[in-house]
Amino acid sequence: MFRKYLVAVGAALAMGVVGVSGGAMAKVEGDTIILGSALSFTGKYAANGFHTQKGYDFAANRINEMGGVKVGGKSYKIAVKYYDDESQGSRAAQLAERLINQDGVEFMLGPYSTGMTKAIAPVTEKYKIPMVEAEGASRALFTQGYKYMFAVLSTSEFYLAPILDLVAERARAEGKSPSDIRIGMAFEGDGFSLDVKAGVVDVAKKHNMKIVIDDMLPADLSDMSATLTKFKALKPDVLLVSGHDKGAATAARQMEEMQIQAPYVGITHCEASKMPEKFPKGATGVLCPTQWLPGIPNKDNYFGNASKFNQDVLEAYPEYKDIPYQLTQAAAAVLVFKDAFERANSFDKDAVRDALAATDMDTFYGSIKFAPEGNNIAKPMFYRQIDANGKYQPVVSSDNIKIRNVAY
Question: 181, 239, 265, 335 - which has most CB atoms within 10 Å?
Answer without folding.
Answer: 265
